[in-house]
Amino acid sequence: MNYFVDERGYYGDFGGAYIPEMLYPNVEELRQKYQAVIDDEQFQQEFKALLKDYVGRPSPLYLAKRLSEKYGANIFLKREDLNHTGAHKINNTIGQILLAEKLGKKRIIAETGAGQHGVATATVCALRGLECVVYMGEVDIKRQAPNVARMKMLGAKVVPATSGSKTLKDATNEAMRDWIANPVDTHYIIGSVVGPHPYPDMVAQFQSIISFETKKQLKEQTGSELADYVLACVGGGSNAMGMFYHFIDDESVKLIAIEAAGKGVSSGFSAATTTLGKEGVLHGSRSILMQTLDGQVVEPHSVSAGLDYPGIGPQHAHLFKTGRGLYSSITDDEALQAGLLLTQYEGIIPAIESAHALAYLEKIEFKGGENVVVCLSGRGDKDMETYMKYFNL
Amino acid sequence: MNRLQQLFKTQQKGLLSIYYTAGYPNLNDTLKIAETLEQCGADFLEIGFPYSDPVADGPVIQASSKEALDNGMTLPVLFEQLKELRQKVTIPILLMGYVNVVLQYGVKEFCKKCQEVGVDGCIIPDLPMYEYEEMYQTTFETYGLSNIFLVTPQTSEERIRKIDGLSNAFIYLVSSAATTGGNLSVSERSAAYFKRVADMQLKNPFVIGFGISDKETFDAATQYASGAIIGSAFVKNMNKADLEGSIKSFMKQLRG
């Protein structure tokens, strides 16, 4: 079974490039050039140097001892929360800004939901001195004032998306419209493994550093580069794809992706795409998305803004459909409790996104002694207000 | 041969097409608008079926799409409304919308329904050319439906020729790098682009759209093409309180 992208830009039934003709030249340019640019030795040197000296990689693989005792398994945390800007998002923006430079682009656009990808994009634009425009839903701008301020301080222009539901999917639409109007000088840095081919593959390759390092670190710490379980949360799915990437062909490794159930899968306030969604086309690729019978995209809900997306990347849809990955979901309440648990057992406040993956540890019946890797995709500083409200801190 | 192909066979100059969103301003206005437009001199029509995330469209059509959805417009509702289409309207009709809505309805079922109610073609901007060619072309042709492709100033000659080969009614020339609802000024650059396409001697005629808003831009565009399409400017001008009057006055400045 091939779990990776084929020559036509598909993962089994999913993927492709469902874009209006106005975007075709932009996407086609990327499609023709991305792999050659990424494979270029000088590009790799620059990419690795920035990941090391600027982002702070490799991120540690930390054996969480007290958590391990609690669950009766060896729980390793892949510490993406320790990256510069506080999450895995920067791995991708570093890669894409270097790629944009190689393609001669002068202007960068991005979409953002909670602002994490927007901040990661504004950061690399400041680093390289490129113009940066970030589209963000009007509703999210109000909810995420600190991240808006960070982006502005980094020199980015934050443009409110005022159409539709005024959240992430609308910000994505606005970014695509900007790209339509600026086809020559602009690169669109998509923040997840979504969008038309080659984005899902390109972002997955940039994020694959997560599993690349993990294998080495597991080998050093356990003697084997394989784990029994690898867990990650999924919104669009970029940290999960980075965490799974180098384990996908090791079929003995159980890959578990955790979506946001929100207030409950059948509550009407959920983002559990694989459970609630159907096959269709969203933001340029065939995948699984939450939609009405008539094919209108449904607004998702999750306490964590990073998982609040009505689709999943096409490679995830493929892993789900083939059964290579187990896709499950965790509610807002379960995630928040897991966030508190990690804080009190290990002294690490996780992002609520990552807390969804941690919460799934409760659902696995361990025999004892299994090696388990959880991707701690981000830190919880940005979520303090939510934690404070929920736990009356 | 469908009505659209017939029209372009007999007439290749000054064709006026109007786009509007089905279900806007009111759910059941669809046929009434088509009738009025035909009376006022429109040569063919594009009826949009709304989608929640219309990336190729500018703010006016986004807004009308959202309102249409809020009014309860869906493809089944639209096909129900169009049952009496051919008792009331004789000009060619295209449906325009996004691929996900068609996929959920079923491509074959969609084509079949189009033929049943008398729709002649469709424009699905995010349906990839390769997918149309490999999966749907035969179905479209079986049901006499013309699929209309878009061409932009960035589309390569090789690709335009490929599109020409797959088209059987007309090619939709997007005036500039933009979403719908911009403002066309026929600059030297766009004039050069229109001429470049005209000089390719394609087998299909072409029609210019995006940014055509009034008589001046319509006349400028139709110097180079068989016709032009007005969408956002028409939708923006619709007045819910006097729908027929607002359509007639808009058409009067175009058709006299």
TrEMBL record, chain A:
Top-level taxonomic group: Bacteria
Pfam family, one: PALP
Pathway: Amino-acid biosynthesis; L-tryptophan biosynthesis; L-tryptophan from chorismate: step 5/5
Signal peptide (UniProt feature, chain positions): none
InterPro entries tied to this protein: Trp_synth_b_CS, Trp_synth_beta, Trp_synth_beta/beta-like, TrpB-like_PALP, TrpB-like_PALP_sf
Requisite cofactors: pyridoxal 5'-phosphate
Keyword field: Amino-acid biosynthesis, Aromatic amino acid biosynthesis, Lyase, Pyridoxal phosphate, Tryptophan biosynthesis
Domain Tryptophan synthase beta chain-like PALP, chain residue ranges per copy: 56-378
GO molecular function annotation: tryptophan synthase activity
Reaction equation(s) it catalyzes: (1S,2R)-1-C-(indol-3-yl)glycerol 3-phosphate + L-serine = D-glyceraldehyde 3-phosphate + L-tryptophan + H2O
Assigned EC number: 4.2.1.20
Chain coiled-coil ranges: none
PROSITE patterns associated with the record: TRP_SYNTHASE_BETA (PS00168)
Gene3D superfamilies assigned: 3.40.50.1100
Modification N6-(pyridoxal phosphate)lysine occurs at: K89
HAMAP family membership: Trp_synth_beta (MF_00133)
Oligomeric form and interacting partners: Tetramer of two alpha and two beta chains.
Recorded family membership: Belongs to the TrpB family.
Annotated function: The beta subunit is responsible for the synthesis of L-tryptophan from indole and L-serine.
Designated name of the protein: Tryptophan synthase beta chain
Species of provenance: Pedobacter helvus
Primary gene name: trpB
TrEMBL record, chain B:
Pfam family, one: Trp_syntA
Top-level taxonomic group: Bacteria
Biological or metabolic pathway of the protein: Amino-acid biosynthesis; L-tryptophan biosynthesis; L-tryptophan from chorismate: step 5/5
InterPro entries: Aldolase_TIM (IPR013785), RibuloseP-bd_barrel (IPR011060), Trp_synthase_alpha_AS (IPR018204), Trp_synthase_suA (IPR002028)
UniProt KW Cell membrane keyword: no
CDD domains hit by this protein: Tryptophan_synthase_alpha
Keyword Signal: no
Keyword entries, A-Z: Amino-acid biosynthesis, Aromatic amino acid biosynthesis, Lyase, Tryptophan biosynthesis
Residues annotated as the enzyme's active site: E46 (proton acceptor), D57 (proton acceptor)
EC number(s) given by UniProt: 4.2.1.20
GO molecular function, one term: tryptophan synthase activity
Reactions catalysed according to its record: (1S,2R)-1-C-(indol-3-yl)glycerol 3-phosphate + L-serine = D-glyceraldehyde 3-phosphate + L-tryptophan + H2O
Matching PANTHER family: TRYPTOPHAN SYNTHASE ALPHA CHAIN, CHLOROPLASTIC, TRYPTOPHAN SYNTHASE, ALPHA CHAIN
Family: Belongs to the TrpA family.
Cited function: The alpha subunit is responsible for the aldol cleavage of indoleglycerol phosphate to indole and glyceraldehyde 3-phosphate.
Assembly, per entry: Tetramer of two alpha and two beta chains.
Protein name: Tryptophan synthase alpha chain
Gene name, Swiss-Prot/TrEMBL: trpA
